[in-house]
Design goal:
lipid degradation; Phospholipase; hydrolase activity; Acyl_Trfase/lysoPLipase; about 15% strand; eight-stranded mixed sheet; globular; Cytosolic phospholipase A2 catalytic domain; alpha/beta
Amino acid sequence: MLFTNHPSIGLVLSGGGVRGMAHIGLIKAMEELGISAQVVSGSSVGALVGALYANGNSVSDMLSFFKETPLFKYNFLTILKPGFIDTDRYFEIFKGYFPKDTFSSLEKDLHVVATDLQKGEQQFFSKGQLIRPLLASAALPPVFSPVELNGRLYADGGIMNNFPSEPIQDSSNYVIGSNVSVVGELHKNALKNSIQLTGRVTSLMIYAINKKKLHSCDLLLEYKELEKIGVLDRTGIEKAYAMGYDVAIKTLERKLKQTD
């Protein structure tokens, strides 16, 4: 069979906020079909889902993590840091899921990308402490404050690399990509105000920058319906998860039948 013939499967998970719950749907489909990745690389929400997957957490645990972690909490607000919410306040919440706080404690190899705001460069993390790189990778400006690591300020990995396939290209002989930063065709009524326009333009820029890497995957999953879900819309968690599972199970089953 296709996937059993590839001893090293790599999984790339894009950024995309709440839409990233589709990644969990993909993981659910992979588990049902007996497909497992050995190496994972993620940006922003993809880094968080990837860390939970690499940690051996169940799909139920993954969904609970995002449902129970407060996105906006009054006592997390800050006026002392650049950003509305103090990202460091999430450390203890993450510690409950990653008590050892090290990459080496994970069951799978994990690569996390964040943006060095001072150098204007991307930085990959795969060794040492785990939680702070995760917080940095998901710290979307200007909502969340940058995270200090080794004396430098880091923010959302998606700023410079929303689809971080680079670390696994050489270490995996079959790459599965999951992209939740979708750019499906919109009706003109979907662009009624400045916020909607800005969101659309940002999505197009991100897609264009990562297009070549997306199509270099051996198998790429994209979920066109996700564009109807807001990036920070927590009410869309279950819907995005269901969309991801539906697309993934059909795609993977079809791929398996082609190789029987």
